[in-house]
Amino acid sequence: MNSFSRTARAHANIALIKYWGKRYIPLNLPAVGSISLTLEALTTTTTVAFRPDLAADSLFLNDIQANDKQSKRVFEFLDRIRDLANISHFATVHSENNFPTGAGLASSASGFAALAVAAAGAAKLDLSNSKLSELARLGSGSAARSIFGGFVEMHLGAKKDGSDAVATQIENKDYWPLELLILITSTEHKKIGSTEGMNRTAETSPYYQQWVDTGPKDMRAMKDAISRKDFSYLGELTEYSCLKMHALAMAANPGIIYWNPLTMRLIETVRELRAGGLEAYFTIDAGPQVKVICKPENSEQLRAKLREIPGIKSILHTRLGGPAKLLDS
Ligand code: PMV
């Protein structure tokens, strides 16, 4: 095989029904299903080149050589691609996020989705979206969802090999034009990564089994809200899943708290604005940033109101985005 380079772009996603907990850690198999929105404005663009002249793999994130931990995850991912394609060349990987790095926004979802598409393309593998989703999941659970655009479901799956623990699209991005405001409350790096947080929660939180048991009901309810385009129901379920996930993580031992005082203030503010007639709902991942879901007609007014809260570092505004794809084909 001669050298071959491909570039792919994938969007970040935000879970409405959260993934928290793994039923089989080595394959990143989720303990619960999840449902997300793919976000247009937040992207990772990744170029992978397998070359016969390389003596090792290398990874650059926003033009800076990645640290050992980041590199190990990516090089293990390249090993899987090499196994599938039956090639032995090392590769260079250049990956760029268009959103501020160090803003505490998870880049692993868009990162591993872009890597899966670019690496498979560079290795000349012709894979289905389902297979790409399965591969992306091995890098990061939420990345399986970023293969698809719009409204996306991550399936729990039942098979031991994980081949059915993949995402599928529920509806495309034009089905229902929701918007999101992402409120950056801190630019510090997160203290407890999602894998460590999930594993500690599964081992020590007394609420973990209830979380797993009630997951299917939450999934059914959210799919119902999406099929009926019932925004209030979607929003209530989103806040419920978010608070349930954080409550169970807080009840781990030692307890995991991802929020800062501004996170809490913004939760209150979103609920106050809603009570005042400006309908919006919050969700929060494994960090202190607050994501606010709203209808397009309310986004500018909400943004203006939220900008008044002191301490917010920046606000990103996005519509729903499309699937991960190769850029150079
Ligand atoms: O994909 P991971 O391992 O970084 O986990 C993502 C976990 C949450 O963002 C908190 C929830 C989710 O479903 O995206």
Kindly describe this structure.
This protein has 329 residues and is of the alpha+beta class. Strands 1, 4, 5, 6, 7, 8, 9 and 14 form an eight-stranded mixed sheet that branches. It has a four-stranded antiparallel sheet with strand order 11-12-10-13. The protein has a two-stranded antiparallel ribbon with strand order 2-3. Helix 1 packs parallel to helix 2 and helix 5 runs antiparallel to helix 6. The protein is built from eight helices and 14 strands. It binds (3R)-3-hydroxy-3-methyl-5-(phosphonooxy)pentanoic acid. (3R)-3-hydroxy-3-methyl-5-(phosphonooxy)pentanoic acid binds next to helix 2 and helix 4. The site of (3R)-3-hydroxy-3-methyl-5-(phosphonooxy)pentanoic acid has 15 residues, from helix 2 and helix 4.
Which series of helices and strands comes N to C? EEEEEEHEHHEEEHHHHEEHEE
Overall helicity: 25-40%
Shape: globular
Number of helices: 8
Number of strands: 14
Which spans have pLDDT < 50 for at least 5 consecutive residues? none
> Which distinct ligands sit in these coordinates?
(3R)-3-hydroxy-3-methyl-5-(phosphonooxy)pentanoic acid
User: From the alpha-carbon coordinates, what is the Rg to the nearest angstrom?
Assistant: 19 Å
Straight-line distance between termini: 19 Å
- The average pLDDT is 95
Strand content: 25-35%
| Biggest beta sheet summary | 8 strands, mixed
Structural class comes to: alpha+beta
